[in-house]
Design a protein that fits this description.
By secondary structure, this protein is α+β, with helices and mostly antiparallel strands. The chain is built from 14 helices and 39 strands. It holds the Pfam family WD40.
Length: 762
């Protein structure tokens, strides 16, 4: 107002870089003027058109009489923006002249200040400073420390020390910073020589011949008399009178705009230029004709600490009639968990025997030598592979041999399929099995380890107070039950194993037949059972997947405390505390725990429930939210590795992302796909990326930063159904994705750089 020749202007960072007028760099508050050639601005208008920041003042710039336009930096936004231009030569000259006069006045004042400075005259203060300063009067003492030359490099003898002699049976080795290794290596010469090992092999594919099929149908037609009667009826007249106004409005709207235009898809297609290459590179593949023929892989787990070791379980391929009963099992196959190594893909490293086919299993996060698994008959089984840890660590590549991902993959797969092996892998028996009368009656479909901070850790036993029990394992099953377990002590596991071997020797039973001895059945029982049934409405919730908060769980049973050995005694009463919607048992919680959990059901429902266990409360009542989003059973219910309250659910033809605490539904859900989603996993390094397996053998890669309405990329992996996906990021240079199919083949894929490294602020 009052300055018609001044026009405020908003300049983006890109425009500031083009015209060298970056705020607080090229132009400052003291030097706030910048003359820009009129020709450069007109050229920018031609190049960037409407996206140019000068487009709003196009007529003003074209009508400017001079050759250079004055741009002024206004950090205080006096005219509403950080910049403004001067559109007349007179105002331009006045501003430049006033700025020059101000600079001259400032320089004159600075010279006057310099001339007014007087020399310093001493008044004796320096003597006081000298007296107060510290002066060394005593001579320093020097020490020299040395030792005899023969003691340099002398051998050192270590002795064993029993940890039980220490206080609390715990010997701690505290960490300290070693200055020896703080030197940064600037240059190093390394030489490497490699020669590929040549192999010759062959394979034959199965050919299926095509078949011709046809279907014929015809529509149901009304006769002319029936048509005339229907059109002249009073019901038809009332219907047309009721809907004709809404139909007219709908027809008018269709003429104005296209209601079927997909705005989200059009918005995403604008960002397609300059995208990096995204792919999953085939690295290796594993299969075994003895254990995996005509079987489907149910679970894949990477070893938490040993690089290149991967384990999998399998069960019989269910036919259409057997889909309902997952516990059907043929006695022709052995129920095992197989261990493979990248460095020796042709040989199995370890085989874990099980009483029944394994549906799911997990390594213990605190002790990877302890493995827990859930069987198709509902049993929970435990293995201890600590005696074979050195064998797994010693599985290294042969000298001067490097495994090539593209060339060795088919050879390794064919050799493994042919059963070629120099040595038979060690067989490991299970060291604990749950009691059959008090375990799941249907397959144990999901299993999770719970964090335990006690000193006993995964060795078993309870906390310092013998009436406190640490809950270290949780399982769920479609029989509407969730079990919480503690881990048997090492003595109990060894006793179980010795009795199992003794029974096998006495009865001469083959090792793959499950033991049904009553004493062995009573060796391990759950501590808590939660029934997911509403007795008021007679509603049952059969969980396939469960996801809990990662907190420490422990409880004290009602009444007199019982030791773990008492819980494992003869069957007189239920050895666990049973909870349900109408339970009246009193639980005293020793530590505040979060009982919020997500459950995925057989029929595709996702349940978000909260079992509130409060002190002196007579009945814990669940507060459940049910969401009927998926059309089939939930095959994946996983928490995000980056957000503790974000979960991914996959089932049927949809997936959904949920946020804990949001009760009105998922925060993102997909539309129905053409095929079925059969497996899925979050990326371990990128928060916005996850992988989904399909029934046609392909992998959909979803990148939510690029697209949310469809997968950003997809890649075909197999000709059969994808059954399980498991990512690994143990190596900084290589990240892998393990994918299994319904034919018993495990594919190891290398994740590309674009899917491995997160974007800025992702």
């Amino acid at each position: 107002i009052g300055h018609p020749e001044i026009f405020p202007l908003l300049l983006t960072e890109k425009t500031q870089e083009i015209f060298n007028c970056r705020a607080d760099e090229d132009i400052t508050e003291e030097n706030c003027f910048k003359c820009i050639k009129k020709e450069d601005i007109i050229q920018d208008l031609k190049t960037r058109a409407k996206t140019s920041d000068f487009h709003r003042l196009k007529k003003v710039i074209q009508g400017y009489p001079g050759e250079e336009i004055l741009l002024v930096f206004d950090p205080s936004s006096q005219y509403g923006e950080d910049f403004y231009i001067v559109a007349s030569e007179e105002a331009k000259e006045d501003l430049l002249k006033s700025a020059a006069e101000e600079r001259e006045e400032t320089e004159e004042e600075r010279e006057e200040d310099l001339e007014g400075h007087k020399p310093w005259v001493s008044l004796g203060s320096e003597k006081e400073v000298e007296e107060e300063s510290l002066k060394e009067r005593d001579t320093k003492i020097k020490y020299k420390i040395s030792r005899v030359r023969r003691k340099f490099g002398a051998p050192i003898t270590f002795t064993d020390k029993n940890a039980s002699d220490e206080k609390d049976s715990y010997a701690e080795c505290t960490a300290y910073e070693d200055d020896t290794f703080s030197i940064k290596m600037l240059e190093r010469d390394v030489g490497v020589q490699m020669v590929p090992k040549l192999r010759e092999t062959s394979t034959q594919t199965k050919w299926t011949y095509p078949k011709n099929a046809s279907t014929q149908y015809f529509p149901r037609l009304l006769s002319n008399e029936a048509k005339a009667e229907s059109l002249s009826s009073e019901a038809m007249k009332k219907f047309l009178t009721a809907v004709h106004l809404r139909m007219e409005i709908a027809l008018q709207q269709n003429e104005i705009m296209n209601v079927f235009f997909d705005d989200w898809k059009a918005l995403a297609e604008d960002q397609e230029e300059g995208k990096p290459d995204v792919y999953l590179k085939a690295y290796q593949s594993f299969t075994d004709v003895q254990y995996l023929k005509n079987r489907t892989i149910t679970c894949i787990r990477w070893h938490p600490t040993i690089y290149g070791i991967i384990a999998l379980s399998a069960r019989e391929q269910p036919s259409d009639e057997e889909q309902v009963n997952l516990s059907n099992k043929s006695l022709l196959h052995q129920s095992v968990i197989l261990f493979w190594s990248f460095f020796d893909p042709m040989c199995l490293q370890l085989v874990l025997k099980a009483p029944e086919d394994i549906y799911c299993f997990q390594f213990s996060p605190s002790d990877p030598n302890i493995i827990a698994g859930g069987c198709v008959d509902g049993q929970v089984v435990l293995w201890d592979i600590s005696k074979h840890e050195e064998k797994l660590r010693s599985a290294k590549p042969v000298a001067d041999e490097v495994i090539d991902s593209s060339e060795d993959e088919p050879r390794a797969a064919a050799a493994a399929a042919a059963g070629h092996s120099s040595t038979e892998p060690p067989l490991v028996r299970h060291c604990a099995a749950s009691s059959i009368p008090y375990t799941h009656t249907k397959p144990a479909t999901d299993i999770h380890w719970l964090p335990c901070n006690s000193e006993d850790n995964q060795k078993g036993g309870t906390s310092e107070n013998r009436d406190e029990n640490y809950l270290q394992l949780v399982t769920c099953s479609p029989d509407c039950s969730i079990f919480f377990w503690d881990i048997p002590s090492k003595e109990h596991r060894e006793k179980f194993l010795s009795e199992q071997i003794k029974e096998e020797k006495i009865s001469h039973k083959p090792p793959d037949v499950p033991d049904t001895d009553e004493d062995l059945d009573l060796s391990w029982k759950p501590l808590i059972k939660i029934n997911l049934r509403e007795r008021d409405t007679n509603t049952e919730y059969g969980p396939i997947r469960i996801s809990l908060r990662e907190l420490q769980y422990r409880y004290k049973p009602q009444g007199k405390a019982k030791s773990m050995s008492a819980l494992r005694g003869p069957i007189k009463e239920k050895p666990y505390t049973e909870l349900s919607a109408s339970s009246s048992k009193n639980l005293k919680v020793l530590q505040n725990i979060s009982t919020d959990f997500f459950v995925g059901k057989e029929d595709g429902e996702v349940i978000y429930s909260n079992w509130s266990m409060k002190i002196d409360t007579n009945s814990p009542k669940p507060h459940s939210q049910k969401y009927a989003l998926h059309t089939e059973n939930i095959n994946t219910l996983q928490k995000s590795p980056f957000f503790k309250d974000i979960f991914l659910s996959i089932g049927g033809q949809k997936f959904a992302i949920w946020k804990e605490g949001v009760t009105n539904g998922p925060i993102l859900q997909s539309s129905c796909s053409a095929g079925r989603y059969t497996a899925g996993q979050w990326s371990l390094t990128r928060p916005g990326v996850f992988f989904i397996g399909r029934d046609n053998g392909s992998i959909d890669i979803w990148d939510l930063l690029k697209k949310t309405h469809e997968p950003s990329h997809f890649q075909n992996i197999s000709k059969s159904i994808i059954t399980f996906i498991s990512p690994s990021s143990t190596s900084a240079e290589q990240h892998f994705l393990a994918v299994s199919d319904n034919l018993g083949v495990l594919h190891i894929l290398e994740i590309c750089h674009a899917l491995r490294h997160p974007l800025s602020n992702e």
